[in-house]
Amino acid sequence: MALREAEGPAGAPWERPMAGALDRLVVESALLADNPRGDPQQRPLYVYRPPGVELDHPRPLPSVYVIQGYTGQVDMWASRTPFEPTMFERLDAMFAAGDCPDGIVVFVDAWTSYGGSQFVDSASTGLYQSYLCDEIVPFIDERYPTAADRERRGIAGKSSGGYGAMVVPMMRPDVFSALASHAGDALFEASYLPSIPSTVRTLRDEFEGSYDVFFERFAEADAKPFDKFGDPIMWYGCAASYSPDPDRPGKALLPFEIETARLVEDVWERWLEWDPVRMAPRSADALRSMRRIYLDAGKKDEYFLDLGATAFARELDALDVEYSLELFDGKHGGLTYRYPGAIRELIVALGD
Question: Could you tell me if 187 and 301 are in contact, meaning their C-beta atoms sit under 8 angstroms apart?
């Protein structure tokens, strides 16, 4: 029998036909122009529409904005883990099965050349929170059948994206009224401090104890293994978000001494101001206004973000804020399967 060309997509496990539609847009941001890192102001923006939802849909729908973890780029949502559907395939299957009311799901890219933005405005990386809230959200509301109302809008993410999902609604409750955080960065003394000594050793043994050398070799390296480069760039990227250097645009003040790993107390105090656990009491009204707060984390999370989620939940208890918290058997990775259920929780809560 001769081989012949077949019509249509290959099907599972390579490419599952979509019942809904994924619009892959490119946008140009005025707020990201001339950012201190020189990172692109032109960005991909993906928008998922459930089956049957066209741009002229007759009624306004709730929307959920999905933000990525550290080092994430929006195109990585299409990556496949062996034997599993991609994020887009999982989401599409949920809507196609009728397991979730209609809603618009927006995938946002806030990548920086330091690996991420923590979804805050920073003098060292750029205005990424404002980009999300003041550019992307109005853009979507103008072009898609979304309800242009914070009461119908939610945000979800994992790790650094889970951090953003917690802090953005606290800082911008005018934009979002529901959140889902999967293993979001929180309780900084538990999640961040344990990796300082090993980071200092890596800088000492691999990069002459110098971030200048680190970034020079990072730029030159064809392969960038996470066990060599991951912690140093994460620390610097987070520092660029939480403690930008006011005298050196694009640079950061580190909360530890590179030679000894000893904490620099005044810089570390600046970091703690950004900890969701510490932010919660200052954001009581915003948190009480949330229509849904969904938290989860793996019990074996390598960054102890199960403890961070629990600590954040205890602050919500003290503020008499309703939420759900699930600690499950898992680690920090491999959590894509949990996204669709959380997105459903938000869409249901944001419904009419």
Answer: no
Query: CA–CA separation, 114 vs 39, rounded Å?
Result: 10
Query: Of 218, 250, 272, which residue sits at a domain end?
Result: 272
Phi, psi at residue 290, to the nearest 5°? -70, 135
In this structure, is residue 15 part of a structural domain? no
Domain that holds residue 243: 190-272
What separation in angstroms does the CA of 243 have from each of 34, 171, 189, 206?
Answer: 20, 17, 16, 25
Tens-digit pLDDT profile for residues 332-347: 999 999 999 999 999 9
The model carries a pTM of: 0.97
**Mean residue pLDDT across the chain:** 97
Residue 4 forms part of a structural domain = no
